[in-house]
Amino acid sequence: THIPLSQVPNILTPLLMGSKLDLLIACLASDFGIKKPRIAISGLNPHSGEQGQLGCEEQDWLIPWLEKERQQRPTIQLDGPIPPDTLWVKPGQAWYGKHQQYADDAHDAYLALYHDQGLIPVKLMAFDRAINTTIGLPFVRTSPDHGTAFDIAGLGIANATSMKAAISLATELVNQRLSNRLAISA
User: Fold this and answer.
1) Which residue of 106, 153, 182, 183 is most buried, as measured by CB atoms within 10 A?
2) Which bin fits 136, alpha (ψ -120 to 50), beta or left (φ > 0)?
C-alpha cells in the first residue's frame, strides 16, 4: 500500500493481484452481502498503456491476468483494465448527483493498482467523509481516510465527520458479519 511509486511496476504481479482480488471478493460477500459483484479494475499506465505505447504492463500481464480471472470467476463481473484517468469519472458524477444513469450503472468496487491512484479521487469526492476499512482481517477495522492531523490536535478545530462515519461503518460491518454467521448456523 505505502510504497514508492517507482517500485509499483515491479511489485505488481498476477499473483499479488489475484490475492488482492480474492480479498476484495470475500470482503464484498462477508461485509456487504454482495455475492456476485461488479468490479472495475484500473490500468497502471496513462490510458492503460495505449496498447504498449505508454507502458507494457497492461499488455504483458494485466490483460492476460484479467482474461484468466474472468474465465475462473464467471459469476463475477470484472471490467478493465480501465484507464486510470477515467476509472473514477462515473462514480464521481454519481457522487455529485450529476447523472443518475451513472449511479444506476455503478460498480460494487473499484480496484486501484496503487495508493494514490485510488485515494486521490476518493479524497476529492469526500475528504471529510471518506473512510478506510482494512480487508482480510479476522476483525473489523475502520479509520478516517485522512492523516492524524497532529498539526491541529488540541486546537478544537478538527472535523469529526470522517471519524463518525468510520465508527458507523464498523458497526454496520460487525452487524453484517454477525448476520452472516447466524444465517450459516440456522
Assistant:
1) 106
2) left
Give burial (CB, 10 Å; 0-12/13-18/19+) of 132. middle
Is 146 in contact with 131 (CB distance < 8 Å)? no
The segments of the chain whose pLDDT lies below 70 read 1, 94-104, 186
* Residue type at 21 in one-letter notation: L
Grid coordinates representing 127 are 475528504
Domain boundaries, the chain: 1-126, 129-186
- CA-angle at 150, arms to 147 and 156, nearest 5°: 110
Tell me the C-alpha distance between 26 and 136, whole Å.
8
CATH class, domain 1-126, is alpha beta
